Amino acid sequence: MITIRPFKDSDAPALIEIFNRAVNELASSAYGPDQIDVWSKLCLTPDQWIEAMTDGRTTFIAVDENDQAVAFSDVESDGHIRFLYASPDVAGTGAVAKLYAALEAEAKKQGIGKLYCEASELAKSFMVKQGFSVVERRDFELRGVPIHNYAVEKRLRPRS
Ligand SMILES: CC(C)(COP(=O)(O)OP(=O)(O)OC[C@H]1O[C@@H](n2cnc3c(N)ncnc32)[C@H](O)[C@@H]1OP(=O)(O)O)[C@@H](O)C(=O)NCCC(=O)NCCS
Predict the structure, then answer these.
(1) Which atom of ligand 1 is nearest to 87's Cα?
(2) From the alpha carbon of 19, which atom of ligand 1 is closest?
(3) How much distance in Å is there from the Cα of 78 to the middle of ligand 1?
């Protein structure tokens, strides 16, 4: 059974494994080898994961019955989602939908008006199923390698 809890420092090694497997085993279905290579290099070190996940953002870790992280995400106070990664072991099982439901419920509780992120091809498919709209495709270079993602957003309450 999957449950959702906040990040703990001891999750850092699991986040690295999830990130690497998500990029290499899942995202590789939509991006080429050079793109996967530069994306993989963006993985943070254990200390950097701890710093990022404890900088004030709200964190969501999906864990299995052994409290082992299998997917993770976050939301900043302005509604920006920086991370959304799942282990291939749970991708497509509904675990990420459960993770996202917790994120959206917490964002509403915090009074966040809009969630937004720069989504990969896979994340875009997932986010659209969660009610996000695609704002635009973003083409850019990552360490000299052309790559793309999508600006997506979901309004949680009407513009005031
Ligand atoms: C984004 C992510 C967390 C979504 O979780 P998920 O459980 O896979 O969500 P879904 O089952 O709704 O799948 C989303 C899309 O991923 C793709 N996908 C899912 N499982 C896959 C698998 N085992 N192999 C290849 N592609 C897969 C599909 O294209 C799917 O879109 P579709 O339903 O329109 O076909 C997960 O796919 C992931 O970690 N991806 C790699 C990392 C990434 O892109 N992170 C986002 C950074 S912005």
Answers:
(1) 39
(2) 42
(3) 25
What is the residue range of 57's domain? 3-111
Domain CATH for 48: 3.40.630.30
| Closest approach atom of ligand 1 to CA 29 | 25
pLDDT digits (tens, 9 = 90+) for 44-55: 999 999 999 999
128 inside domain: no
pLDDT tens, position by position, 63-75: 999 999 999 999 9
* List of E strands, the chain: 3-5, 58-63, 69-75, 84-86, 114-119, 133-142, 145-155
Domain count, the chain: 1
126 lines ligand 1 (CB under 6 A): yes
For ligand 1, whether the C-beta of 129 sits within 6 Å is yes
Q: What is the rounded CA–CA span in Å between residue 121 and residue 155?
A: 21
